[in-house]
Design goal:
homodimer, alpha+beta, 60s Ribosomal Protein L30, Chain: A, 8-stranded mixed β-sheet, 5-stranded mixed β-sheet, 8 helices, globular, Hydrogenase expression/formation protein HypE (chains A, B), PurM-like_C_dom (chains A, B), PurM-like_N_sf (chains A, B)
């Protein structure tokens, strides 16, 4: 992140800056390739996309929108390697449900069915596996989604870490709904559904044995109901994104790049709880890049923004929702933040990750 | 496996035998929990099914049949932890496509879309990841399925094994088709699509550095086209199953248990290529329990059996198809094999696995 001068509306000159996404030559995989930032994007762009091809994958949303048997279906997958398996406010089982349910919700789809794949490490206690499975089942019931198919593999001790999980999910996209990163347009209002940085700090605190005055609990939650509430106001939402790995900073950069628009956020408007801000200061982290798992960012047409915000505020998972910025025609592909002092800084796509294995 | 006396049709007395599925008390996960046999079944029965609940999961087919937006959809997932990543005739990328495509085909569904989750180990060469991705993409194109959504996680060195993969897939189930293990009925003819034991021995041979006169290549293939050919004869197929982990022995036991029927197979009718038979003799393995990844076993109503077999024989992936037995009302839940000498042996569900990490 670098400081720039000049107000944004006046088209500052970024031409001398280095390319935000240089092709890095990595002969071997590093932790940052899993961080949801620039290294992850390069792996997708240079390794996976050319190998798999296909127009749907190229959309790069949280989930794919496909048609099958006449139905419009959102389809998504995530693997989960969080360490530790249990943390304040949740577990890998909760993440595995909510992560995929939320990816589907970011297409406006209500998750209907989940698959679940376990990769167990030889020697892990079966009681631990059972606790994970129970958490996963409970989270599925809470989210109104059914686990219908699964698979279990076991690898030798020293080739896993207790339990890795994968879930995939499918859900129907309502008629008239077309939510994807490419639809952001200048004039859209940018809204977040609540406090940022909570999940990442909750996991980090237990992993590193940090103690704060107030225990920080993960915000891990299923956002399908909140999205339904928002869609009841208008099906005309343009973009939804859950800022998981890479945090809000990565999510906004991906949207700006996909739609070829600029994004301006007001630093002071971003809701960050005091304990998270303190922990970030202590750890040298930027809350903009810390992972969340029960939050979303929405790009909403200006004429619907007030009504959508009101609906979010009335929902338990949106009680701390806030307008944090807007979509602009200037500096396409770039996200800038107006600082409290009236300056402007560029919010880059993070390169790797601040906190590995957070989900 | 145990020798029994008496011809099957005359209702032999198995009452003194021990329960084939005692509840085993395993405080920790062992390799056999991933083997597709009795230990895997216990994990599903005692840990996953109670935690997840739900009527669809209880169906225990290779894939789940669900309804979404008015469409009948098959949905399935598998994780892949095969070692080595590349073996004669295929790779983990091929397995990841064909394994899930075949699970869908076992519902009569043609796979349409795949998700793909990578769990990479820090330090694995990016060139290896790229080779896997290319194999996966090529296998998807060969199977006529599109990879539409994916995810990548990275774990520290010493917590993985290069590349683990998960795929999930969806495909439409044709109208009038209802293929599932519960539909086996006495009188059904049991057909396999070709030589058994090839995939498992191919992986094992390279892993253990075994050399045979003839290199054994994995039979890894997508069976969607073969199933389409069979369904063109009649939509009235009762059961399809791809005998992967646990081999034909596990597959037949699962069907017998699900439908509450007996199965009788003729040992001499089972196609096992000579090099596989030799390797099995050398390694002390039973080809009935060795994994396949390009074969299926079908339970077909007697009146359609000849026509279905003819259609299979005319398809490249069914050229060595054979009738191997029948479904009977006697000894429900039990599979027996008539040996070459006129005796009968019980084909038990294997407990763990002969060959770990074969897929």
């Amino acid at each position: 992140m670098r400081e720039a001068t000049g107000a944004v509306g006046s088209a500052p000159d970024f031409s001398g800056w280095s390319c935000p996404l240089p092709l890095r030559d990595h002969p071997r995989v590093v932790m940052g390739h899993g961080g949801g930032g620039a290294l992850s994007a390069e792996l997708v762009q240079h390794v996976f996309a050319p190998a798999f091809g296909g127009p749907v994958l190229a959309g790069l949303g949280d989930s794919a929108a496909v048609t099958l048997g006449g139905a419009r279906i959102a389809f998504s997958t995530d693997s989960f390697v969080v360490r530790p398996l249990f943390f304040p406010g949740g577990s890998i089982g909760d993440l595995a449900v909510n992560g995929t349910v939320n990816d589907l919700a970011m297409s406006g789809a209500k998750a209907a069915y989940l698959s679940c794949g376990f990769i167990l490490e030889e020697g892990v206690e079966t009681a631990v596996v059972a606790r994970v499975a129970q958490a996963l089942g409970a989270a599925a019931r809470a989210a109104g989604v059914e686990v219908v198919t699964g698979d279990t593999k076991v690898v030798e001790a020293g080739h896993g870490d207790g339990v890795y999980l994968n879930t995939a999910g499918i859900g129907q996209i309502p008629a008239g709904v077309d939510i994807r990163p490419q639809r952001a347009v200048p004039g859209d209002v940018v809204i977040v559904s609540g406090d940022l940085g909570v999940h990442g700090i909750a996991v980090m605190s237990v992993r590193e044995g940090l103690e704060f005055d107030v225990e920080i609990e993960s915000d891990c939650a299923a956002l399908g109901g909140l999205v339904e509430t928002m869609l009841a106001v208008t099906p005309e939402l343009h973009v939804l994104r859950d800022p998981t790995r890479g945090g809000l900073g990565a999510a906004l950069n991906e949207i700006a790049a996909a739609a070829g628009v600029g994004v301006v956020i007001q630093e002071r408007a971003i809701p960050v709880p005091a304990p998270v801000a303190s922990a970030c200061a202590l750890l040298g982290l930027d809350p903009l890049y810390v992972a969340n798992e029960g939050k979303l960012v929405a790009f909403v047409p200006r004429e619907h923004a007030d009504a959508v915000l009101d609906a979010m505020l009335a929902h338990p998972l949106g009680a701390r929702a806030a307008v944090i910025g807007e979509c602009v025609a200037d500096h396409p592909g770039m996200v800038v933040s107006r600082t409290g002092l009236g300056g402007t800084r560029v919010v880059d796509l993070p390169v790797g990750e601040q906190l590995p294995r957070i989900c």
